[in-house]
Amino acid sequence: METVNGAALRMTAIRKTFPGVVALDGVDLELNPGEVHALVGENGAGKSTLAQIAFGTLRADSGTVAARGTVGLVHQHFQLVGRLRVWQNVLLGREPRSGLRIDAAAAHRAVRDLAERNGLEIDPDAFVDELPVAARQRVELLRELYRNPSVLLLDEPTAALAPAEIDRFFATVTTLAREGTAVLVVTHKLAEVVAYTQRVSVLRRGKMVARFETAATSVDEIARAMVGGDLPAIAARQSVELQPCVKLTGVSAGEGASAVSRVTFDVRGGEIVGIAGVEGNGQNAIADAIAGMIPFHGSIEVPRTGIVPQDRHLEALVLGWSIVDNAVLGRQHALRRGAVVDRARARSDAASIVSRFDLRATSVDAPVRTLSGGNQQKLVVGRALIDDPPFVLAYQPTRGIDVGAATLVGSRLIEARNAGAGVLLISFDLDEIFALADRILVLYRGAIVGEFSSAGADRARIGRLMAGAAA
Amino acid sequence: MIRTAFRSAGALGGPAGAILLAFALAAVAMLIAGVSPLDGFSALFLGSLGGRSQLAETLVQTTALLFPALGVCVAFRAGLFNIGAEGQLLIGGLAAGALGAHLNVPAPLAAIALFAAGIAGGGLWGALAGWLRAKFSASEIISTLMLNFIAFSVASYLVSGPLKASAASGAQTAPLAPGAWLPILVPGTRLSVALLVALACAVALLWTLNRTVFGYELRASGEAPEAARRNGVNMARMTVLALTLSGAIAGAGGAAIVGGVLHRFNTQLSPGYGYTAIAVALVGDLHPLWICAAAFGFGILESGGLAMQALADVPKDAIHVIEGLIVLVLAARRYIATRAEAVPL
């Protein structure tokens, strides 16, 4: 990599503490113009904190940050105004003016040109909340590019993208880098690191523990550096006698493009059924109908269900509450003793989730907000499994969490299956499906368009079915 | 400079610092108005805490604020902006007054009957807003506010018509028989057992919110409605229940004033307790016990305000300026605090 002009971003001896935790301790990071640099680490390792310090939303306790030019940050959780149009989002706060009014024509032109120049296909007039996830991502990216950053930070940029979209996204990123931008990709997905970046920095518990030239390393080596040893293997599948468990017959639910129409399938006790598909093809309708959150036609037979919802912040947790109080949510009637909540049991349940899932927290009374995403997810999955439900509905159970946490969550789901529970796994991530499912259903535009036994399933063919090709 | 002032106010110990700062700002206002702040404040505190009868009167005001503030607390904790405590208090008082005029039973029974009537009246008024919200998605902010006006009109009509004491009397219900009055705590003052009822109510509310399944679901629906909805909380039912309970507690306050102070109902029952109660609940951090402390603080202002006017020639309205300043400073403090603590993603 050429570094004639020196680093685009240089962070030296960064230290940052939050009450009770040292988030970063003596971290150095250097980004060169023209490189795509990966920052990897487990949840809670300090990646997001480091990115926020580089961007300026957090201030380091000590250490120096030197950037040449502006720094842009694309957030993992999109920061868009759904009810505004694409161009309004891109220019938010920097609108070209004519007098007191926004110069709409100039604004429009600026966004269109910017999108074309960077090969980002987008309709500037579309409302953001009507766009699919991949397009929203492009809007986020455009908004940062509008400021013409010399350093671009991408926080988990592909968490919600389908395989083809991920390729396209990195093609754009690579072009940007070629034109001189320094790009930092914060990610968990090591396959992407290896495929698309030139250098890798590994954070573990607030310290920079390794740096690799990507060409000279491997997924295994990076993973070992992340967890500080060998990865625990995922739990082994035992052969289980399959029992009837869940049956959907001719189920129609949902509205518009993401509805499902006359879907029929079953999940038997002792198997994990994976629903593969690109986001927005009816996954929400299936999950919500099974959970009883929306009306549906047809019939659904379902036993007591442990639910891992898609969005842990919005649908599963009360972020201001402790681990103990969150361990009660959804089980408040099961934990009822007269009029009151059985607090002794809530505490022991929370403690058992913490130990079974290796949940790292200062105490069970710590607010869930202070936990890293992986630890929050461990709590959500732990709570769904704690009463040994005969059926588990897991929607993206390992979304946005690191390898170690994902392996653990996957192992617990497989153990539930081994114990005879039926598991329905809904995921946009084909890797997750292949790692966990016994049987794969492909969902496209509200219909099941293919069914495979995961042993020996043709990955490319499933990918084509997900994209709507007649296989 | 203002930021520094806010910060040092925070350093002085949270709400206490904010209150001190509000008083400092009020002192500035008094100076501008040409009154010595020293005279003003000494009149305020002597008039509210300077003797047995002054203290008793402050506690009467505390009681009148505490009920509706606890009611507001219930709704706010459930994520519902009930600004209708004034109307709920009024209807509660109306119900107690209408029943009380015909009550001829021993004191303990009468007290229970009066509070039951107040709870039923206020609860009904709260339930109405809850039902509108649950059934028609009508914003409870609008409906509770509008129900305040309806409550006042209904009460005015009833006391000048069907419930009017006699042709000769003004617009008020017939007086309660002295046997039905709430027992007085401190002889020679207006302080009745209603204060104890209000305090018991605060403790019961604390227990309900923190210990019971109902309280757990109520807090969950306030803090994370979508998570609550997806985890077994019937949100429509919770909306109705929370606003009913909220109104019921405020309505008990109406009964307390009718039974303990006025001994009859008229529409001058409340000088705006139901609105001040919102500030009391917020200053009390929506925590029942802190709300008791906040109600006492606002009770001092309410009862000392008259003394300030009489002794130091400070208009009583100045008290509302101080109340407003306290709320503003506290709100600003919270805003600055949340901005200072960025939370890691």
Structural commentary:
- The complex is a heterodimer of chains A (471) and B (345).
- Chain A is α/β, with parallel strands linked by helices.
- In chain A, 32% of the residues lie in helices and 27% in strands.
- In chain A, strand 12 (243-253) and strand 13 form a beta hairpin.
- Chain A is globular and about 65 Å long.
- Chain A starts with 8 loop residues before the first strand and ends in a 5-residue tail after the last helix.
- The model of chain A has no long low-confidence stretch (mean pLDDT 89).
- Chain B is mostly helical and 345 residues long.
- Mean pLDDT of chain B is 88; it is low at 340-345.
- Chain B has helices at 2-11, 15-32, 37-49, 52-77, 85-100, 107-136, 140-160, 194-211, 213-223, 225-229, 235-262, 273-283, 288-312, 317-340.
- Chain B has 14 helices and no strands.
- Chain B starts with a helix and ends in a 5-residue tail after the last helix.
- Helix content of chain B is 74%, strand content 0%.
- The chains are: A alpha/beta (471), B mainly alpha (345).
- Chains A and B meet through helix 1, helix 9 and strand 18 of A and helix 9 and helix 10 of B.
